[in-house]
Amino acid sequence: MATTSTTRAASVSEALPTVVIQPPRGWLELDFAEMWAYRELLYFFVWRDIKVRYKQTVVGVGWAILQPFATMVVFALFFGVLAKLPPAGIPYPIFFYCALLPWTYFAGALSGATNTVVENQRLITKVYFPRILLPLASVISGLVDFVIAFVMLLAMAFYYGIVPTAAALLLPAFLLLAILTALAAGLWLSALNAIYRDVRYVMPFLVQFWMFASPVAYPSTLVPERFRWIYGLNPMAGVIEGFRWAITGQGQAPGVMIFVSAGVVIVMLIGGLVYFRRMEGTVADVV
Amino acid sequence: MSEIAIRVEGLRKRYQIGERERYTALRDVLGNAIKAPWRALKAAAGTGRSKDTPLQKHGDHIWAVDSVSLEIHHGEAVGLIGRNGAGKTTLLKILSRITKPTEGRAEIHGRVGSLLEVGTGFHQELTGRENIYLNGAILGMKKTEIDRKFDEIVAFAEVETFLDTPVKHYSSGMYVRLAFAVAAHLEPEILLVDEVLAVGDAAFQKKCLGKMNEVTRAGRTVVFVSHNMSAILNLCSRGLLIERGRITKDGTAAETARAYLESLQVGRSENLLEIRERWGRGRVKFSRVSIEDAQGRRLEHAMSAETVAIVLHYESQQTQTLQNCRVSVAVEDLYGQIFFVCSTEMVSNETRNLPPHGAVRCIIPRLPLSQGRYNLTLFIEVNREIEDWLPAATPLQVVDGDFFGSGRQYPDGWEGKGVLVPHKWEIEKGPGS
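The joint structure predicted for all components is written out below.
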């Protein structure tokens, strides 16, 4: 300790980082440099989430697969076999699983991000860090579940003899869109949840409603062609159709829809950043 | 002593008080908007005025930090002294950027480590090893830094054998030791510490104080909040006294500690209505406190082990009954450390309605306080709104009584040692004796 402090004392005269503390001003003071400086803490938050979730490995991994898989079985049975949805040119299990894969990730990441500010209130009232790291970490840590469920998809594709085409190269782009959608909505909802504590009661309904508004249990071709761009206002519609198309290589690429979706996400994300940042200054007094 | 580490100019922070529900429900906001859109419109139309009236009308805000300006140089160890609720912690929270000020500005030159609580961010499910990394990162250490100090931290905490056990299985002593060990190895240029030494057993506290001493001697800047005057005198060269959000004394630690103790002793008027250091809406106010015995006779001193009635007289401008009241008296030492609280809410479930003027008697059978001087903090809430809150409103002088039924006097040096607890001793023979 003695040695480090002498070197520190010597370095005092050099340029010290200076922080200015002021009342909240304006409506946009995003500080990307600061977020970068705190990247290690982001890593530790993600690491914590994953560690805690997979403390019991078998349960963690099993749950990651079971959730989309069981839902797929139910959908395939009721919508596919019994309700006789128009055949999509691909086996029903693949059809549903391709949609449930990004959807399960999205729903989990969104719920996680929404609760994160409230769950970490002790931390928030006792120590400073850019609060945005919290929803960001939960959106990132959800990807582990996604990867595990994705392995299951590969197994299913192999079983049904589906060979990936060049379209599969676009999969990361659709995943990125899903991540950004979860982050954008998560920023809004976690900030709202910190201020209005009943938001979490609305969440299950919102997630369910959102799922039915997305082409999870049905193909988006059910929506007439000329209204499809309106449908794309729901960014998850673009993501899910993108996934189906990229994995199976069947059907048409979700052209206009995906651009509308991407546009919506960017607007939502910027709005979310601003709103979250506004909440950030006062959150320690509220939670 | 040349360069400035912290410069604060005209810092103010406003808090709302009297709101029991600290967060709002979206349901209410939407409900109000739907029920009374015209009201919302009206409010929007008359912007300028309606914006600040709600606050001024109720007067239910306080300036927790009020026009604070100060400079702290590199290498200084500064103690912040003041009563509970004087604004010390709020000032520390602003400096550590947890909350933003309402007005003013502060400049901090150097890396800041803040320690408002020991074990912030510890996760019950994670092991000791994992928590060292997590907690270290949360306190602002880099991973390489934690790697480097890991062994030192573990040795300091004395938890070597339990490193890979989840901390939920730790004893509270181990938990605190580990938490403090991580914090103690923070090496920022500026360290902000809030009353964290009051944890763990005596031996560990001593160790912590030693560590803090080391930190201040190493020439780092420390701002330290504590009720423990001896810790302040030990660690700090300079002391700041904070009263009602303002700095009222800036001098050596010894000078400031003396000023603080004097401020606590200042003879107050018996008429509580004259006290200005009070919070709440003020439609009901405490006017006088009297100490009585079981028969209702006025007493100058209360006596240990005797029945004592603390009679709180209050006044209000209301004419009708005060609905749903909650009254409490906290008994604390001269430093503001609370020994116990008597509250109407705790002893009964029924709602209490009070006449608009009158008195409430809090009867304590067998007063469990040792001889000495205490302060009473008074509190009254009507219909979930704080009406009057008087910190350390009036002294309570207690003289020795025969609490233990042994006829023994309490040794003089033990004055003000606090709460007496009935107990007995048993002796067991060891094997072979």
